[in-house]
Amino acid sequence: MELRHLHYFIAVAEELHFSRAAQRLHISQPPLSQQIHDLEEELKVKLFERTKRQVHLTEAGKVFLERSYGVLAQLKQAIEATQQIGRGEVGRLAIGFVDSAMYTLLPEILRVFREQFPVVELRLHELTTQEQIQALHHKQIDIGIVRSAISEPGLSMECLLPESLVLALPETHRLSTQTQLSLSTLADESFILFPAKMGPVFYEQIIHSCQKAGFRPKVAQEAVQMQTIVGLVAAGMGIAIVPASLQNFHRSGVIYRPLQEQIPKTGLYLAWRQHDSSPVISAFLGLVRKTAQRESNRDDK
């Protein structure tokens, strides 16, 4: 029995007329009659009572019609579910992110993704860049949003948002009245840094920039969370070089100033396993790219 047999049978059962059913199916009547005959032969039961003027369903035919509707409904559901999976509309997605991502595009990305893919179960994990790299390798997360590009075997990286670096100062700092600062004026300052083992690329970027300015920064404190770093600056524990997006974290007692030197930009990067072909991951990456492009176009206006 083939699926077309069910469609032929349903058409005749609903029309109770072979000619009208044939017209509805866009076939001629003799092949339709033959198909119904073959179906009855296969089932070894009569489905229709035929007279010269009328066609009626037998009791067996009535049962078979009801079950045929059920089969087609289940098939439709199976097709829809399969297509949803293929489009990445169902499933689970575990996302790792550095805390500073929450001050950039990430909240908007999550909001839009939830609207467009409401059935996908999102699991969010706030992790450092190095923790995300390990989590990706161990398949504990599917996508990472990390700070700075990292060359890592088995992982793909794509820039989500390039960012400048700015200086965070206590608002009572002696240099707070200046609108722009040179790194060379900070040689005697105490710095609050992100730990090297948690984000080696970002850490080395700051150290190298200071060394180019003629000094190695004196580290007063290290902190894993960017908002903790800003909090320590507000407490007068030191100064910090942070991504420009941290200015969206409104903390009293802290001011931000641009730096005169052309410090290499940092950025947020998407990271995922190179050979992971999950439709859900593809759907998320596509949405992220569109959102980032839309925001970029808005900033250019």
Explain the layout of strands and helices.
Blueprint: H1 3-15, H2 18-25, H3 29-43, E1 48-50, E2 55-57, H4 59-86, E3 92-97, H5 106-116, E4 121-126, H6 129-137, E5 143-147, E6 155-163, E7 165-170, E8 190-193, H7 200-212, E9 218-222, H8 226-234, E10 240-243, E11 254-258, E12 266-273, H9 279-300
Parallel strand pairs: 3-4, 3-5, 8-9
Antiparallel strand pairs: 1-2, 5-12, 6-12, 7-10, 7-11
Helix pairs in contact: 1-2, 1-4, 5-9
Assign the CATH topology of the largest domain.
Answer: D-Maltodextrin-Binding Protein, domain 2
By helix and strand content, what is the structural category? Answer: alpha/beta
Give the strand order of the largest sheet, numbering strands 1, 2, ... along the chain.
Answer: 4-3-5-12-6
Instruction: Report the order of strands and helices.
Output: HHHEEHEHEHEEEEHEHEEEH
- Which stretches are low in confidence, meaning pLDDT under 50 for 5 or more residues running? none
Can you count the beta strands? 12
Number of helices: 9
Sum up the overall morphology in one term.
Answer: rod-shaped
- The CATH superfamily label of the largest domain reads Periplasmic binding protein-like II
Q: What percentage of residues falls in helices of 4 or more residues?
A: 40-55%
State the CATH architecture of the largest domain: 3-Layer(aba) Sandwich
Largest sheet: 5 strands, mixed
How many domain regions? 3
CATH class of the largest domain: Alpha Beta
The residue-averaged pLDDT reads 87
What gap, in angstroms, lies between the N and C termini? Answer: 62 Å
Tell me what portion of residues adopts beta-strand conformation: 15-25%
> How large is the radius of gyration?
32 Å
